[in-house]
Amino acid sequence: MIEIKNIKKSFGGTPVLKGVSATFESGKCNLIIGKSGSGKTVTLKCMVGLIEPDEGYILFDGRNTTEMDFTARKEVRKEIGMLFQGTALFDSLSVEANIKFPLDMFTKMTAEEKRDRVNFCLERVNLPNTNKKYPGELSGGMKKRVGIARAIVMNPKYLFCDEPNSGLDPKTSIVIDELIKEITQEYNITTVVNTHDMNSVMGIGDKVVFLHQGLKYWEGTHKEILKITDGELFDFIFASDFLKDLRLRAHFDDK
Amino acid sequence: MVRIFETFGEYITLMYRAFSKPEKAVMYWNETFRQAASIGVGSLPIIALVSTFIGAVSAVQFAYQFSSLNLVPMWWIGSVVRKAMILELAPTISALLLAGKVGSNIASELGTMRISEQIDAYEIMGVNTPAYLVGPKIAAAIFVVPMLVIIAVFLGIIGGWGAGVGGHFYTTAEYFKGVTDGFKSYDVVVMMVKSLLFGFIISSVSCYYGFTVEGGAVEIGESSTRAVVYSSIIVVIVNFVVAFLLL
Fold it and tell me: In chain B, positions 15-44, which contact chain A (CB-CB < 8 Å)?
């Protein structure tokens, strides 16, 4: 479980996070949603330690990372896997070398063990026999899947996904979402997904945290979201008239 | 003025972290050798070409000056070319060329990695990114730049021989008499000191500008330009200081 408590962060005097608190549960897909500029990415980067919060605490199963030194935080980071928005695959390395890198750096596994682990992860994300390819030779969806394979290769306890569906077609987005959900449940990972894709919210959102103007505005499940009738979250979810009509029709169909 | 001190402080902090204890030494060794091959092999053709012609043109210039004076024997040209190449031309010209080629390459590579979140990806894994991405580049440059300078000296001297003999300014025997006459090993020490310092300056300044870039493609271009400009300026200043102190 990950807890964030009263996280505040400003950039150049402009407050981006004004005191966000939330709990992200183990074995569940926890989604952070919100409009562009609401503070989703900053929250995620504060959680993984890429940005230092000005105030507040971040607890990974009770361990406060905001008060840790570099060495102690490094140990927590080894339990973290992250899928970046642009995948952040290492251009100069092959798919196999990308996934193998953390094993090379942090484990004493033999070459054969590493190869087996890489192949297992690639098969898990449905990308067998792509070991020798380079990131430049892969499609957007394949890159995301390699990103997921790299994120899970060290058996992480925590998985962070920053906009996993950005730049993907709807069908591939669903495949990536399902993959994230399966992996979360299979390995009992605490997964935190930063998204503004409503398909993801409805498909994998075990728990949803809605940020608005640097504050937590709402939290609940994807089922509860449908019961929202007004306010900022309603405007965010049913941003288009098309969706509002659909919701209205569903409402009358229920009656 | 405050910005200069801030930049210097950030640079010193980066250098401190770049030489902290590695997570797994073998990975750092591999990366250092990869960088050494990239800097060394990649820069060899341009260093060879330029130093050969610098030696050649130096010989022609000295021959022109000496022949008009008619006071000194022509075999002195070998000595003057050797001295000029070892003490000044090979280390300085090579360093300025490397600042342009290697410096911009390092800054843009690290800048692109920063912008595309590849450095963040290393950080998330728990890798000490300055140590893994900056340290090996500096170590490789300190190792390779002196070698390139030594090659530049040899090729410059050969260039001087080719130009002088081809232009009938002196014979091969005269030229190499000059090259070997009055050779001081201390000159090579000065050359090596300069080469080591220049290798460190070019790589560390370029790493700093690449590693700390923020923004997008425009900022990567700007940081690459800054890396070349500032490392070149520091090279010529340090060149003067070393010459002043050691000669």
Answer: 23-24, 27
